[in-house]
Amino acid sequence: MHELNWPDIGHNFLIGDDGRVYVGRGWNKMGQFSHDFNEKSLSIAFIGNFFNIPPGPMALSAARNLIECAVIKDYLMENYTLHMHEDIECTTNPAPSLKRKIQEWPHYGGEIPNYLGC
């Protein structure tokens, strides 16, 4: 935040490995995490290092519950798709073990074809 002169955290929510959900920007403020998808996304960050080991079951369950809550409250459409940051931006994946878990979820949409242009 300080190096880029951001006023606050860019994600809407953050999830700890203990399953606690922390409010970043919350439901009603647009996230600032992607150049072209901020206006039509809900961003969730997992707190920790998930390069080799994925988040624990409590964190993954919290994420799924948060997404379900977003659908119920009409913050997400029922036919939403899940994407990792590197699916929509030219970045490397700092959390391949997390991505392997998310890819198993029914709404995972993967890389957006013809968008990245990396």
UniProtKB/TrEMBL annotation:
<dbReference type="InterPro" id="IPR015510">
    <property type="entry name" value="PGRP"/>
</dbReference>
<dbReference type="GO" id="GO:0008745">
    <property type="term" value="F:N-acetylmuramoyl-L-alanine amidase activity"/>
</dbReference>
<dbReference type="GO" id="GO:0008270">
    <property type="term" value="F:zinc ion binding"/>
</dbReference>
<dbReference type="InterPro" id="IPR036505">
    <property type="entry name" value="Amidase/PGRP_sf"/>
</dbReference>
<dbReference type="InterPro" id="IPR002502">
    <property type="entry name" value="Amidase_domain"/>
</dbReference>
<feature type="domain" description="Peptidoglycan recognition protein family">
    <location>
        <begin position="1"/>
        <end position="89"/>
    </location>
</feature>
<protein>
    <recommendedName>
        <fullName>Peptidoglycan recognition protein family domain-containing protein</fullName>
    </recommendedName>
</protein>
<dbReference type="Pfam" id="PF01510">
    <property type="entry name" value="Amidase_2"/>
</dbReference>
<dbReference type="InterPro" id="IPR006619">
    <property type="entry name" value="PGRP_domain_met/bac"/>
</dbReference>
<dbReference type="GO" id="GO:0009253">
    <property type="term" value="P:peptidoglycan catabolic process"/>
</dbReference>
<comment type="similarity">
    <text>Belongs to the N-acetylmuramoyl-L-alanine amidase 2 family.</text>
</comment>
